[in-house]
């Protein structure tokens, strides 16, 4: 499964906008409120159409909400109005299997339902897959991870894994919470607990447990071991030669990356366990991650995209970011989706300063804004001092006051103030 294009009409900040996607990696860049998260939400609605076709298990079809409608500002008299724009449409084209498919979901009024009459071809493809799930058909993986992915659970689950009750496993469990932007961490831990129990029962480790663990270890720098601890009922991660650390006390970056990669790998393993050790190499799909750089040190930011694309080579990724390190790590400008402006063809040879200024419109990045401000104030101070030196005697006090006021905000830097005051005394006296 690959997403080729997405057309949005009256969807939040997008009144009419088309997006074209790279088949492997798409890094969305834009200022705050430019519509990065709105784009991911729209893609998740388009992806959820696939889940509607599975009738043997109730899955989240993710409807268009009234709050998704674009608001148009108007004023009647003294009253500000924000009427909604209808219809809201999410239209997409993509490839499922070897077939190119077009589909659309729409909502025509606030009280209306989300329609999928123009999405029958995709839904029928899902129905056919549903009927063949007992065979060797490969299910595409779907996942959406928002900025609150680690801090909110999609649904309350038992903290203690229930290993006594046998529940019938289904391949479609890999689609559970797929378009919910929160990670079900408790259910992820429960999955590891069941795999550990099977290891004990069978006397050997299940292949899927080994695959998921190796995926995590590849993506967390220095990680050497990941296992479930039955006494603590949580995951333990070992970094280098250090002692194992419980998941609950890991850094935010370690927890976020561990949960993210483990959840993706577990979904792929559940959907396509028949692929064995090659499950991550051969499982296709679409994964959305909002603010991929969240909680990650710059050293990790430099490698995270490559780690994910190497671990899940058949998956199409759509990320958002504010990090120049992620932009710099792209293989080509074609993988950069800019909400404002045009992407450059080559990125690997750009400095962080080039990216921050030319692509992210952040201005010169060599120095801080405050340093640049102080430099500008100093220049103005010296120019004013030259004017004061030629001014009449009765104007000198005004000039001195202006000069004193200009450097007063920088009391935390007495050397800066003293240097400029020395120039003033030399030219104007006390």
Total beta-strand segments = 14
- Computed structural class: alpha/beta
How is the biggest beta sheet arranged?
5 strands, parallel
CATH architecture of the largest domain: 3-Layer(aba) Sandwich
Overall radius of gyration = 28 Å
Largest sheet: spatial strand order: 8-12-13-3-14
How many domains, as an integer? Answer: 2
What oligomeric arrangement do these chains adopt?
single chain
Low-pLDDT parts are none
Q: Per CATH, what is the topology of the largest domain?
A: Rossmann fold
Percent helix range: 25-40%
CATH class of the largest domain: Alpha Beta
- Order of H and E elements: EEEHEEEEHEHHEEEHHEHEHEHHHH
Q: How much strand? A: 15-25%
Shape: globular
Amino-to-carboxy terminus distance:
77 Å
Per DSSP, the total helix count is 12
| Mean pLDDT over all positions | 90
Explain what the structure shows:
The protein folds into two domains: 2-188 and 262-359, Rossmann fold, CATH 3.40.50; 369-428, no CATH class. It has helices at 36-52, 120-131, 185-202, 207-219, 252-271, 279-282, 298-311, 324-328, 352-359, 369-390, 396-407, 414-428, and strands at 2-11, 14-20, 25-29, 74-76, 79-81, 88-96, 99-107, 141-145, 223-229, 234-239, 245-246, 285-289, 315-321, 336-338. It is an alpha/beta fold and 430 residues long. Strand 6 and strand 7 form a beta hairpin. 37% of the residues lie in helices and 19% in strands. Residues 6-190 form the Rad50/SbcC-type AAA domain. It comes from Parashewanella curva. Residues 235-327 form the ATPase AAA-type core domain.
